[in-house]
Amino acid sequence: MTAPAKYADLTGTYTLDPAHTRIGFVARHAMVTKVRGAFNEFSGTAEIDGANPEKSSATVTINVHSIDTRNADRDGHLRSNDFLQMDEYPEITFVSTEVARSGDDTFDVTGDLTIKGVTRTLTIPFSYEGTAQDPFGNTRIGFEGSVVINRKDFGITWNAALETGGVLVSDKVTLEFEVSAVKNA
């Protein structure tokens, strides 16, 4: 696929803007509701090639300590050895290995996600949300994407059986990405 002309001006190196980016997750709790959370501390860069998107790349590093589900006890449990083993594995990383256009404004970003020292390759479908000049003269781009992972694939196996059947925490977790990145000068 040839890249649309509107992407030509996007070529460059971008840095994630943590104040306007959300890296979140959703997991089913007690089989009846969803718990949403986010990681509040992370860094990342993207090398965008507007003319040849397949030459683009991205990396993200997430601070596990920054997990936030709006419940201090739950966050403490998620940081513990039962789940993310924060002391031994303080970071979650994603390093892209391939970018492919899947439509006019959609891209599949394939890469290596590492959680708790376990690396799995996955593909995250992203949609291009647009480009804007902010009030400070910076070029910003926006992308949104999500992917479902199985937490057991990353060695996160803790759970509790419910008296009514089922388990306390779902194996499937949806990772959500709402990205705003600023073009480096």
UniProtKB/TrEMBL annotation:
<dbReference type="InterPro" id="IPR007372">
    <property type="entry name" value="Lipid/polyisoprenoid-bd_YceI"/>
</dbReference>
<comment type="similarity">
    <text>Belongs to the UPF0312 family.</text>
</comment>
<feature type="domain" description="Lipid/polyisoprenoid-binding YceI-like">
    <location>
        <begin position="13"/>
        <end position="182"/>
    </location>
</feature>
<protein>
    <submittedName>
        <fullName>Polyisoprenoid-binding protein</fullName>
    </submittedName>
</protein>
<dbReference type="InterPro" id="IPR036761">
    <property type="entry name" value="TTHA0802/YceI-like_sf"/>
</dbReference>
<dbReference type="Pfam" id="PF04264">
    <property type="entry name" value="YceI"/>
</dbReference>
